[in-house]
Amino acid sequence: MTAPPAVDLGDNVTVAAATLAALSPETVSRSASAQCLLQCKKGAKETLTCPECRGVIKYSDLMSKGNLSMTGKMLRQSMVGLTTCDQHKEKRKLFCEEDKTVLCDSCLLAPEHKGHQALPLETAADKSKDKLQETLTVLKKKEEEFKMALDEVRRRETHRKEAASNLKCSVISEYGKMHRFLWDEEYQYLQGMGQESKDNLAKLEKEVEENLDKVPLEMLQDVKGTMKRNEELLLQEPELPSPGLTTWYITGSREVLLSFQRDITLDPESANPHLILSEDLKRVQYGSGPQVLPDNKERFDYVLAVLGVQTFTSGKHYWEVEVGYKTVWEVGICKDSVIRKGKLSSSEGVRTLAGCVFGNRFVLLNSHNCFQFIQPVYKVGIFLDYEKGHLAFYDVTDGCLIHSPSNTVFEGPLRPYFSFGIPKEKIIPGSLIICPINNQ
User: Fold this and answer.
1) Whether 33 contacts 52, CB under 8 Å
2) Among the four 202, 257, 283, 326, which has the fewest Cβ within 10 Å?
3) Structure pTM?
4) pLDDT tens digits, 285-300
């Protein structure tokens, strides 16, 4: 008998066919009806041919709940030709649940099946049908659960996309507000600087005119004085004011700079013998007498300086130094190859900001010898952008820019530089403290 095309009856009917096959492989091979059922596998068409009447059965009709009982009846009818025992020539009426095979009465009494639980074939078929129905019910329930879960995932994905789009718009809006605010602040800053420069220039011109008018008048009034007095007047120079530029707070500058803050420590191998370093290598102070230290090539022997351990060859870096209101201090960067013996020259790649106190005046100087008189600075921030050749010094307390030299091309490793200048009898340096990285 030619077998009909294989038909996908679903997992449940496949289980039923497999159960039927388990009853007895020898008997199944004799039954054309059983062979037709066993060939109902995945990948077949949506119809199959009945093994009894050769009628065409739709898959959807076979799998409906109402026809599931018919499927069981078909299975039972197919079992009729499978109930003759080859060994005992008796009808196989029983199904051994432990060995999953059909037995006759004599088989059940055999030693290999002794004590096994056996059910009538129809009862076993009904039991299998019930299991199939339970499995189908569970699968349908699982299918519904997966559909609900999939719908929930799709709903969440849609919500996430909407939330991401709204957040993007909000971020653009917030940065737009900050841009407009900073542009306005920049405009006011530049306007203020321009007006301040005009006012200072007018003040200087007025002072010059007053002094030029004043000096000859004093000389004429003192004509009867001694020659010595006249000589002193001739040598006298007018005292002109040296106004410093007002510093302006730059909104958000320190918050941005702190994102590049580095944990800087002092290098004891480079420290001048007069400098005393703390155990954590975060503080340096001047000692009146030199310490007995190895005169290695890395050590400064004249300039009261010490380098940071860290070297920079790329990237953006920021650190802060507490200078206090000291007599003299100097912080910045220098080349790793800087000469450590004797005085330093401007060609050594040292770029620093120095603070000095002369009487009641505080003076800031940079490594190009320009200076300005401004209010004292107690904490200095140093920012380095290696690739852009940019260096800037900030007043951490007031959140303003102090000085930023023209950009240049950095070559080779750079290191943080800390100094108290050169030894002078009248200047007693204090101490420099590197601020911790978590300092806010």
Assistant:
1) yes
2) 202
3) 0.55
4) 988 788 989 989 999 9
DSSP secondary structure code for residue 100 in this structure: T
Rounded distance, CA 65 to CA 50, Å?
18
- What's the pLDDT tens digit per position in 226-273? 445 445 544 544 444 445 556 677 878 888 899 999 999 999 999 999
Cα(52)–Cα(386) distance, integer angstroms: 89
What is the H or E stretch that residue 173 is in?
helix 121-221
The pLDDT tens digits for 322-335 are: 997 767 899 999 99
Strand (E) or helix (H) holding 29: helix 25-30
DSSP line for 248-314: -B-TTHHHHHHTTB----B-TTT--TTEEE-TTS-EEEE-SS-------TTS-SSS-EEEBS--BSS
Q: What is the dihedral of CA 386, 392, 397, 398, to 10 degrees?
A: -130
- The amino acid that residue 180 corresponds to is R
Residue 39 CA to residue 42 CA, distance in Å, equals: 9
Amino acid 92: pLDDT: 79
